[in-house]
Amino acid sequence: MASTPLNDSPVFRRLQTRHAETCSTTMRTRFDGEPDRFRQFSMHAAGLTLDYSKNRIDRSTLDLLLELARERDIEGHRDKLFAGEKINTTEQRAVLHTALRAPAGQGFVLDGQDIDADVQAVLTRMQIFSERVRSGDWTGRDGRAITDIVNIGIGGSYLGPKMVCQALRTFAHPRLRCHFVSNVDGHDLAAILEHIDPATTLFIIASKTFTTAETMTNARSARSWFLQSGNESDLAKHFVAVSTNLSGVTGFGIDPVNMFPFWDWVGGRYSIWSAIGLSVVILVGFPAFRAFLDGAYQMDTHFREAPLERNMPVLLAMLGVWYRNFLGSSSVSIAPYHQDLSLFAGYLQQLDMESNGKHVSADGELLTTASGPVIWGDTGTNGQHAYFQLLHQGSDLIPIDFIAVLGASHTLPGHQAALLANCFAQAEAFMRGKTADEVRVDLVAQGLDAATAEALVPHKTFSGNRPSNMLLMEALTPATLGALVALYEHKVFVQGVIWGINSFDQWGVELGKVLAKTIAQELTGTAQPAQHDSSTNALIAMARAALMHNPIAPD
Ligand code: F6P
Predict the structure, then answer these.
(1) Pairwise CA distance, residues 273 & 281, whole Å
(2) CB of 215 closer than 6 A to ligand 1?
(3) What's 232's DSSP letter?
(4) Are strands 468-473 and 48-51 parallel, antiparallel or unpaired?
(5) Nearest CA to ligand 1 atom 9
(6) Is 156 in the pocket of ligand 1 (CB under 6 A)?
(7) Please, is 428 exposed, middle or buried when counting C-beta atoms within 10 Å of its C-beta (0-12, 13-18, 19+)?
(8) How far is the CA of 218 from the centre of ligand 1 (A)?
(9) Would 6-71+306-432+466-505 and 510-549 be classified into the same CATH topology?
(10) CB neighbourhood size of 275 (10 A)
């Protein structure tokens, strides 16, 4: 990773000057003066169209941003990523999720191990197993086919499979329902157990480490619940594991033949392409999962080969850097206009914020510029009736990524045109705004007297000049979804390189985990309360008192 502070770069300083020189020119003015702005600032790759014309940029600004990308050696870092160099330096790990989606025969070798062969072998096992479950050949303890899959996992072992199962729900097998349990809050698991039959349920315990407290607590509770009506000898028909930790899996009591492995070079938030996708494969079938991998591979190929000027992840990343580091935006809103992408913003939160939510560089130096923004959002049109007010007229500049899908998989008349109209109208409104003069003319035309109209003008004026990207696809298919996820993965990678971050570790989640372990022992009485601060002491005392009336079993 680059070791020079980002703001020491002459290109960075030129971009600061560029911003000062150009910030008074609005996007509306640019569109009015540049009839071919869409053609200039849009591109296609891997089944996706990116329209980035509604950004506060011109050709020179973009050229400078790309110069910054070159100066930070994006191309060199990209090569190291694909070559399997140990770019996750704090954990001494390669980052090779791209090897999971490459077609067979790419010859990936890591530390002398033919990981290409390993990947293909696990995919074959996933295919065979999923076909058995889907056909009804894999049966539960009383010979009936499986009807319900419960994926127990958290973080990357939950967000990816849940988001993809939701996004591809129209491809789902009609007999199968997938459920996802992540929260250690027992209400999560209990709500699912109420509705399933243990004899026709398959539990997938998904955990890279097989030590994550939430997942292991839920897995143990699921097993106890199963054993209330079944025998130990039936467990093998109902519990499988996805993990890198063979001894953890066998220690839990799952037969290694029922374990689908992956490897330490797959980061948790990049693991949907691995056996962590088992629930997806079972639900939508192996060919659809392969198409999902292929879509991502197409984006990988584009990212690897396209010049930076025509490279979708690089452009998306550098636009984000422009707003974060030069215009002071601290968050990005994600607005998918497709109900089946309702979990997409949540998925991106882990991908982006766990990767780039860091304030030290890969070299251990304090960063001197801002790094990863807050990622948030919800589906259009729901967001429009909740927080778009702030996006239109609030005091912060929040860039938006619209995701629009042209085709629908339902046949309800009228909906799709209304949906797309809303999406495009919002993007246009954010860009153009509405001037005071335009508001005045409208109000007077509606018959308002001059004084009433004037009082309303400031409230009804929209500054506009609020940037957005539009990502467009023909249809939400396994392939376009794969390309979309890979696009954001590479965007996050590029931004991490610009900021000089190791995007592949996540030490920030450790402290809370350690303290929670101590406090859990104090709450269950297996350890004497230690001295915390007065607030934490008081909270523990209140919880201990409550738990005396409703005791919980220690682990
Ligand atoms: O929250 C930290 C984290 O390590 C994530 O990176 C990961 O996706 C999640 O926990 C779950 O980890 P595991 O799959 O090992 O249970």
Answers:
(1) 10
(2) yes
(3) G
(4) antiparallel
(5) 155
(6) yes
(7) middle
(8) 15
(9) no
(10) 27
Before 217, cis peptide (omega within 30)? Answer: no
User: Atom 6 in ligand 1: which residue has the minimum CA distance?
Assistant: 268
Known catalytic residues are: 354, 385, 513
- Pairing label, strands 201-206, 239-243: parallel
Tokens in use for 289? 């999962």
State the residue for tokens 């130990």.
Answer: 232
* Domain ranges within the chain, ordered by starting residue: 6-71+306-432+466-505, 97-291, 510-549
Q: Which two tokens stand for residue 215?
A: 């997942």
With a CB cutoff of 8 Å and minimum separation 6, the contacts of 185 are none
Instruction: Read off the tokens for 492.
Output: 């996050």
Q: What is the pLDDT of residues 37-65, one digit of tens each?
A: 999 999 999 999 999 999 999 999 999 99
Residue closest via CA to ligand 1's atom 16 equals 207
Q: What is the dihedral angle through the alpha carbons of 318, 323, 325, 326, rounded to the nearest 10 degrees? A: 110
Architecture of domain 97-291: 3-Layer(aba) Sandwich (3.40)
Q: Does residue 154 line the site of ligand 1, with CB under 6 A?
A: yes
Q: Where are the alpha helices (DSSP H) in 381-477?
A: 388-393, 415-432, 436-445, 450-460
Largest CA distance in the chain: 83
CATH assignment, 510-549: 1.10.1390
Ligand 1 pocket check for 207: Cβ under 6 Å? yes
pLDDT tens per residue across span 315-343: 999 999 999 999 999 999 999 999 999 99
The pLDDT tens digits of the residues spanning 500-519 come to: 999 999 999 999 999 999 99
What CATH number was assigned to the domain covering residues 6-71+306-432+466-505? 3.40.50.10490
User: CA nearest 350: which of 236, 244, 459, 268?
Assistant: 268
Read off the DSSP letter of residue 367: P
